[in-house]
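This section describes the prediction task in plain terms. A model, or a person checking by hand, is given the sequence of a single protein chain and must write out its three-dimensional structure as a string of tokens. No templates, partner chains or ligands are provided. The sample shown here is typical of the held-out split.
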Amino acid sequence: MNDFQDGFISYGRADSKAFATYLHQRLSETGLKVWFDQNDIPLGVNFQNQIDDGIEKAHNFLFIIAPHSINSPYCGKEIELALQCHKPIIPLLHVEQINRETWQQRFPHGTDEEWEAYKTKGLHSSFPNMHPEIGKINWVYFREGIDDFEKSFLGLLELFERHKAYVYQHTYFLTKALEWERHQKQSSYLLIGEERQQAEAWLNVRFENEQAPCIPSERHCEYITESIKNANNLMTQVFLSYAQTNKATMEGFRRRLMRDCFTAWTNTTDIQTSEDFEDAINRGIEQADNFIFLLSPDSLVSKYCQYELNYALSLNKRIIPVLIQETDPKEIPKALRSLQYIDFTDNSNEENYYQNESQLLKILRQDEEYHQQHKMLLVKALRWERQQRNSSILLRGYNLRYAQAWLKLAQQKALYSPTPLHEEFIAESLRQPPVISVDTFIVYSSANNDFARNLNDALQMQGKTTWFDQENLASSEDFQQEVEQGIESSDNILFVISPIAISSPECIPQVEYAQKLNKRIIGIVHQEIPKEALGSELESIQWIDFQQNRGDFFVNFAELIRTLDSDPDYTSAHTRLLVKAMEWEQEKRDDSFLLRGKDLVTSEQWLQESAEKQPKPNKLQLEYLTASRELPYRKIKRRSVVLTSTVVTVLVVIARFLGWMEPAELRVYDQLMRLRPSESQDERFLIVEVDAVSSEALRQDIIEGRYEPGIGTIPDKALDQVLEKLLVHQPQFIALDFYRDFKAQPELAQRFRETQKLIALCKASYEDEQGNIRQGYIPPKEIPMQRIGFNDLSEDGELMIRRQLLLQAPDPEFCATEESFSFVLARKYLEAQGISYTSPLNDKGYYVRDIQFGDTVIPPLWGNGSPYRDIGDKLAGYQTLLNYRAYQGDPSKFAPTVSFQELLNGEVSAEDIRDRIIVIGYTDTADKSADLWNTSYGDLAGVILQAQMASQIISTVLDQRPLIWWLPLGGEILWIFGWSTVGGLVIWLGTRSLGQSAVSAVGVLVGLYGACYLVLVSQGGWLPLVPPAIAVVVTGVGVGYLTYRLRQT
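The expected answer:
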């Protein structure tokens, strides 16, 4: 592990040991790690090596200036190493010079002559013998007794923070470069992947308008550019051609190019051991973007230089002549005379040199991408030609499209146009039929570039098509996507195994992706690794150890070829099926991409074989085969089901809005109401019925003269007697559900006036079915209007009552009240219980809020929900739905009932009357005073109906008995759409069997009916049933028809 330090302290002990110790202490207290020889040189080690290592791994070099350190050879060595490493050097002036007294203390026996000789040599002062580089740098002043230590110390800390990240990278890449050098510059120690990219970016950093804290050393530049070269398959940007006598000049150009992050090929650095010299030269020229010719008299007569120049010209390389010595223009080859050369012979000053250098760099960066592609395609074409036009090397896919576009552009250029081989290679690639799969995909670490390249070349020589990133990826591509597509289209995955590869963040995801696709993976052991270092995902793969047979590549390669050639048809079929399945997946599983006919039969046979072979089909392949197998039973897309449901919902909602479905919905509502379970009786009420028996008894009493005949209603005396008997037992309220629009006898009139618990009714004038205005009925004059309610009801035709009318505009002539009879009764009772009432009307008589008793809200029917539409004056006034209470299935028994005659005869106990609401009315249908209404349960007398209405409000407020509620318009639309979609999906899912679909559709309708019933029973909610039922049927029919049409195409 690299133990980096923030600083290294170099000092002379005689003058500065105490100061250096204190400085180290102060720096350490700030959290900085500083190398100090007193603490960082272990016992028993070579101290010089330890010092060198400390300087190399320190981000900053602190040099304490004092006479002793200036004149110390050890400190001199430290300065030289820091300069060689291009370290940021921070000089700290501590002691300018020592006096005779200090010298005498160090040399007690020293004489005057020795002191003078000491001064003559400049050993007493920091200035005479100072290293010139130290003298060029601004110092930080720490002179004792002269400078403020704390102020200088803060300035020093600021220097530590200056461009800190850049300086840290300088140290890190330096140590990596030194490690590479100490391992004979082996390629396995070069930078790879993201780390190489970071180094490249760091080398390209330039500091504008300020001085750099440090600059890359030659070691940095070579290491980073060699890493780039290694990552690019040993291809370079520049080939340097020169005469041997100009080697020093060439080295200068190479260093400058490397400093600007250009990779360069030279015969001194890039010819491999035992490689043929001429072949190496040719390879270097072929694999370079540019050919720089160092023009001098010696290069013009050098046969090697002329050979290199002619070969570069034959390949249409970009030639950049650089004049480095005065040369007779007549001696310059004709091919170079037409080219503008860069004259480096007139560099009379540094400015001229930098101008020429900038011109060279500008040319290299001009059309850089074009010349890079020129080189890449040329290298591939040459390999294709040298391998007997091996078709496995031809371009395909993205590479072919890119090359075709490049060729079209290149053919328009006058200089550096494509060679005939370029054109032939691309033309032959275009003539090849497209391939679905390749034989092998090579997974490897960049550290194993050399081996991977040899493996790729050998495979192509054997006629195997390969996917090799250095050949199949262009710099502008989406790397991850292209790699995954390469894995998908490869029959075999070759994983070059090495200690670096098994932990590589690039290799392992590729292997895992191949395993996910159930690819045949073959491990190629390039470097020995312990089995325990392998993860579980690598233990199961097949291995071929290329270290066996004494590491003979070709013997082990033969074993690989035998493995690849085992059952190639099966693995190829695996790949073809996978490619088709993934294309189907990418196209959102479009049926047009499924297998048919012979393809399906062949794939089914392959699937049967897979039971005993490797690799197995993956999940996607199985799904693809299943979908292909079920193609004759294909279905419309889900979005078509949703679209059909949407259209049907819109049509149903429109029909409902126009009221076309109201009759059917109300009939279904009535049925659901009748199916509800019974409830207990409402013990707050006592219904006094004037039934047939009571009517007959009263008639007999009139005949016998006990009562005077009335005007078609209960005789006044009989009514007075009943009221007297009731009031004795203290009922809560007494409500008279019959009209008293005539003058009462004095005794009864007095009773009416005195009884504050008495509530009566009236009726407003109204328009009959023929459009005639019918007069209403006035209330009893003896009862104040505060205890009068109207008897008007909201009917749905045929005297059907499903709604409760609570408020309406008063009729000044006949019925000057805005509250209904049942509402007045309920309000009076609730107010007596201490429940406050909030009117929905404002001061101007407009409805601005909901009716509210305490915290209980009575919702109004405004036509924005439920099956009722606000057409005409149907929903005029304040109405809500009526939640009938049925006892033993009979709403007429919802409360205890006695007859008028029983009450008159004293046959009703006091307990049955006390604290109850007494409602008196006719149930004798033969009497003209009786009113009979139709309900969901059948005919119901008006007195029962009025009591039901009052009971509904009271029970809701006091017992939380639910009112009938309904969904808002938006909720109803969603409800209808949801069931419409369910109906469509049921048919869509069951389209294999018509009978199954029909049963499922019936099941949906039953479920809809059950849901509506359960919500009505448990929560009191009226959910639409008919509209969603129609939507289910129509959507199901529509989906079935569309599916039928699809299968016929």
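For orientation: The mean pLDDT is 90.
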